[in-house]
Write a structure and sequence with these properties.
The complex is a heterodimer of chains A (about 475) and B (about 280). With about 475 residues, chain A is an all-alpha fold. Chain A has 17 helices and two strands. Chain B has about 280 residues and is of the alpha/beta class. The two termini of chain B are about 25 Å apart. Classes of the chains: A mainly alpha (about 475), B alpha/beta (about 280).
């Protein structure tokens, strides 16, 4: 074995770690493609007793000092992140700090409720996805449509890798891939084809285990959709003006197309990377031209702030932010992000002033652009602000949703039989936004904890070394006994 | 861009010769290629290439320096008078001069750091619109060779049909190759004896042994899970030297075989499966 293992200083992972090293390496690679840092690999090695003893000594000594600061650093009512808002929102801070209570426990209990609802709806046999037999007859209203199933998979793919929800999406894509073929999809409208392709590319090819026939069919469908979409895209004359002509893509569709471009990394053998990048840059440049003053975004806002323009609503901008964050795996720098961040900040201030009107009744039109902001619009707001590390704004929106949950109570959770799939998708999207928000919140809390406790830990370590080193030197210098 | 790593269970199978000639031939076929000497233990590309007729404009720093974070990727790529052929050299000076932290970063697991640097380099090459990144990594199972295989789109497993290769190859397949995900594996059999190349005909026993070795290697590759398709077999070159045959001896049989091999590589970039040609 020695001849194949590392020698001359170049080490190899021990056999029990090798598979883990390869798996972590692959995961790290995927993380880096998403713009995240690689995972840290730590082999299973035995540590010398001496090191263990020193580590335990330092740990016990410092734990007494760490405990006190930990309490004061926990987020509490009086220490709400809202207090840290920028000067542009100080008026809001003054009126809302007493009202806004960010308690992780409440949010987690809402998330548990959300998960229960979702699990109940899909059940072990995915009852929402296959027709359900009720009282001896098949109730097709409970069957999810292909479009909604694909959206469902797309949302699931955005959960943390290897989480149960993420795995569910992978499972659905694998087991249902045989029902999707190009001849069906090519008859649909371009916006539908865009969303379809995005969902088909949601998971890396190596995660979807298909037989040769199914795999070929699946890949052919992806390629056929891609070719049709890019052909249509190259023929469009208007960029974002909504039109009755389905071949002209609107802003929302362009954003879905950006998602597709980002997801092509999951099927690298099917797509020409150079072409994908050039298309992405072209779309981004067009969006950049829109963000210039006077185009698409009005300079002043109407009294009714429910939507800014029919062209580039807040929801579109939020979705664009999310799409661009995915594109960082493809392109290293995207200047438009800075512009969007600035605009988002401006919009946030205005919407905070207007207290983000929320529909008091949940209905099936929450996906449509309308005068009022619906649940998914708020969820998009949470996600967009989360990826920008704007914890204060994300917290505000989360709390808004949380209080609305509690106010609506049973009417919010009541099932609407004819619109269950809509309900399913929006609840899932909301859960996703909460998950991402909590990850940000936890990491910021931990950073604060680590920063202040690190100083005490360092102090104890230095003190320990100051004791150990002189003692060792003294022992060395002491003359030998005759 | 496609990243291809040449790997072998042990040294001396002809990995460097193959990777250098392949990279150069791909450049001759019009592809923009970057060749990386990732054998940090025994880097040999510098002597290989500088002894050829290729004119090389040296880079400011070595790849080893980039891996330990001394400089950026742009400073390690050397250009040549072949306008689509670029090379990246490693050296062992850093290992010899610097302190233990640098050594351990390069020789040990590095907590994902070297993998991150490889990824950064690949991203840089993609932005420079390279068509191929060819990585010649150190043989055997080491953290660095595993890193190279993980980041690659394809791994070319270079083997020699000798008896001592068989057990080692089986071990590497079961311990390493079978656990690689997201990377396509192909094998190259190098230094296959050809009766026509021999000055004197061998005895029957040796001929049978040679055939048996080839068959055993093939079985090893085909029965592995997943199986590793044989993409090409190269004949043994008598009196082989470290040369860019495709540059210095275009009519040499090895150059012709490299050309066939590269055509398969180029075709496979547009295809999904790679078939055995021999």
């Amino acid at each position: 074995m020695r001849e194949i293992r590392g020698k001359q200083g170049f080490e190899a992972p021990p056999p029990q770690d090798l598979e883990n090293y390869l798996k972590q390496g692959r995961k790290s690679l995927n993380r880096m493609k998403e713009g995240k840092s690689p995972l840290k690999f730590r082999p299973r090695r035995s540590i010398s007793v001496k090191l263990v003893a020193i580590a335990v000594f330092i740990l016990i000594s410092s734990s007494l000092f760490i405990a006190a600061p930990l309490i004061s650093l926990n987020p509490s009512d009086n220490n709400s992140p809202i207090n840290n808002q920028t000067s542009t929102t100080t008026t809001i801070t003054q009126t809302t700090t007493t009202q806004i209570v960010i308690i992780n426990q409440d949010l987690r209990s809402i998330m548990i409720d959300l998960e229960d609802i979702l699990i109940q709806m899909i059940s072990e046999n995915h009852s929402l996805i296959t027709p359900v037999i009720l009282d001896g007859t098949i109730n097709l209203s409970h069957a999810i449509s292909e479009e909604d199933l694909l959206d469902f998979i797309w949302y699931l793919s955005q959960f943390d890798m290897d989480s149960d929800w993420w795995k569910l999406g992978k499972e659905l894509l694998t087991e249902r891939s045989n029902i999707w073929n190009e001849s069906t999809f090519l008859s649909y409208t371009i916006p539908f084809q865009l969303k379809t392709l995005r969902s088909l590319l949601a998971y890396p090819s190596y995660e979807i285990s298909l037989g040769i026939t199914d795999k070929t069919s699946f890949e052919n469908t992806c390629i056929a959709l891609w070719e049709n979409i890019t052909r249509t895209y190259s023929n469009i004359t208007h960029f974002i003006v909504p039109s009755e002509n389905d071949s002209i893509v609107i802003a929302e569709d362009q954003i879905v197309f950006l998602d597709i471009l980002a997801q092509t990394v999951n099927q690298q053998t099917l797509f020409n990377n150079t072409k994908v990048k050039s298309i992405a840059l072209e779309i981004i440049n067009k969006f950049s031209s829109l963000t210039a003053n006077g185009k698409g975004i009005p300079d002043s806002f109407a009294a009714n702030l429910s939507w800014l323009s029919p062209i580039f609503t807040y929801k579109d901008q939020g979705n664009l932010m999310l799409s661009l964050s995915r594109l960082t795996s493809l392109l290293t720098s995207i200047p438009i992000i800075e512009v969007l961040i600035l605009r988002l900040s401006e919009f946030n201030d205005i919407f905070l002033e207007e207290d983000w009107s929320v529909s008091s009744e949940y209905n099936d039109s929450s996906k449509t652009t309308d005068q009022e902001y619906f649940l998914t619009d708020h969820a998009i707001g949470v996600r967009a602000n989360t990826i920008l590390d704007k914890l204060n704004v994300a917290s505000y929106i989360v709390n808004m949703i949380r209080t609305k949950f509690e106010a609506s109570d049973s009417s919010y959770y009541s099932s609407i039989p004819d619109h269950q799939t809509q309900y399913l998708l929006d609840q899932l999207y909301l859960l996703l936004s909460f998950e991402e928000y909590l990850v940000l919140k936890t990491s910021i809390s931990q950073t604060g904890t680590v920063q202040s406790s690190a100083s005490f830990f360092g102090l104890i370590s230095i003190l320990s070394l100051l004791i150990i080193i002189p003692v060792k030197r003294k022992l060395k210098k002491s003359p030998p006994r005759k | 861009m496609e990243t291809i790593t040449f790997h072998s269970y042990r040294g001396g199978v002809g990995k460097t010769l193959l990777s250098v000639n392949t990279a150069f031939k791909l450049a001759e076929l019009g592809k923009k290629v970057c060749l990386v000497d990732f054998d940090l233990r025994a880097p040999s590309h510098r002597s290989f290439l500088f002894s050829s007729s290729l004119k090389i404009t040296p880079a400011k720093k070595s790849f080893t320096a980039f891996l330990v974070g001394i400089n950026g990727p742009a400073e390690v790529i050397a250009s040549t008078d072949k306008d689509k052929f670029f090379c990246v050299f490693s050296d062992i000076e850093i290992l010899q001069k610097k302190g233990s932290k640098v050594r351990s970063k390069l020789t040990q697991h590095s907590e994902g750091g070297i993998l991150g640097k490889l990824f950064e380099f690949i991203r840089y090459c993609e932005l420079q619109v390279f068509d191929y990144l060819i990585i010649d990594c150190m043989p055997g199972i080491t953290y660095r060779s595993l890193d190279a295989m993980v980041v690659s789109d394809k791994v070319m497993v270079v083997t020699r049909p000798v008896q001592s290769e068989i057990s080692g190859l089986s071990l590497v397949i079961s311990e390493c190759y079978s656990k690689l995900e997201g990377t396509q594996l192909f094998s190259i059999m190098n230094q296959v004896e050809n009766l026509k190349d021999l000055a004197q005909p061998p005895n029957g026993h040796d001929v049978n042994l040679a055939k048996e070795n080839v068959q055993n290697i093939m079985n090893c590759l085909q029965t592995s899970n997943p199986s590793i398709p044989l993409i090409h077999s190269f004949r043994r070159i008598p009196f082989v030297t470290e040369r860019i045959y495709v540059l210095e001896e275009k009519d040499h049989s090895f150059s012709k075989e490299i050309e066939v091999f590269c055509s398969k590589l180029v075709d496979s970039s547009n295809m999904r499966d790679l078939n055995e040609g021999n």
